[in-house]
Amino acid sequence: MNPIRIIGIGSPFGGDRMAWDAVDAIARSGMLDRFPKGIVQIFCTGAPATDLLPMMSGAKAVILIDTVISGALPGTVRKIDASELMIETANLSSHALGVPECLALGNSVGMLPKTVLLYGVEIREDGTDDDATAQMPDLLRAIANELDVLVRLDERPPAQHRSRANGNDG
């Protein structure tokens, strides 16, 4: 069984703690009780440069949660496909690896799961997260919906191959 992993990226301080708070809220909410034991695993990291790729290893799908500063209104929850974050790997260095660099590195060496999504929550430029925390229910609903889709895809029976050689459709 290849699990689905939810990884909160940040730290226990300031606005950067929002992703860790989200992972704690997911754990406390009972959201994961709907799924078979072990199919959804949750983690937090403050060191994506060293932790992110090992945490993603062996997963079928990964949902990353992180704060972002993009100029959107604070509290805006945005689903970002990992391919949007990929950077040019020609100049990739092991120094100052952030999430985009880790994803690019993982992609270049074939270590990324099939599905990698990032839920970015906009914080203020000064790093505070008052508005981001207020959006926690929206973020949790979005992640619950994402998990429903990912687990449902995993539960579908394999496609049946049909032969028409005998004139029979099934």
Keyword list:
single chain; 170 residues; alpha/beta; five-stranded mixed beta sheet; 6 helices; disordered C terminus
Strand residue content? 15-25%
Number of helices: 6
Strand order of the largest sheet: 2-1-3-5-4
Structural class: alpha/beta
Shape: globular
Counting DSSP E segments of at least 2 residues, the number of strands comes to: 5
Q: Nearest-angstrom radius of gyration?
A: 18 Å
Which oligomerization state do the chains in this entry correspond to?
Answer: single chain
Distance between the termini: 30 Å
Approximate helicity band: 25-40%
Largest sheet: 5 strands, mixed
Written as H for each helix and E for each strand, in order along the chain, the element string is EHEHEEHHEHH
Look at the structure and give the mean pLDDT. 80
List low-confidence stretches.
Answer: 157-170
Question: What does the model show?
Answer:
This protein is α/β, with parallel strands linked by helices. It contains six helices and five strands. It has a five-stranded mixed β-sheet, sandwiched between helices. The protein is globular.
